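Sample intake sheet
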Amino acid sequence: MLGDDCLGIVDCRVTEKFGHDLLKVGTFSRPALEALAAFADTLSTCRELDVPDALPKLLHDLVKRGVDAGLSDQQITALTKVLRG
């Protein structure tokens, strides 16, 4: 569990799901937290810009696919930064 404040992340539900996905593949570590923070920053930007919910869901799905494919934490962080533009 990421805690009540979800590390200060705006969209706790999506971020918690992503955190649980990391836990399932056994990569929940400091680097994984950094990847999660990068993803959370992307979600926050989407929220600030009033982006429709479909885009953050797509971003979540793409990042999850990266985790499932065995990408390293640095690759996941890079992926979220690229997706952020």
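Comment: The CA atoms of residues 37 and 85 lie 16 Å apart. Residues 1-12 have pLDDT under 50 and may be disordered.
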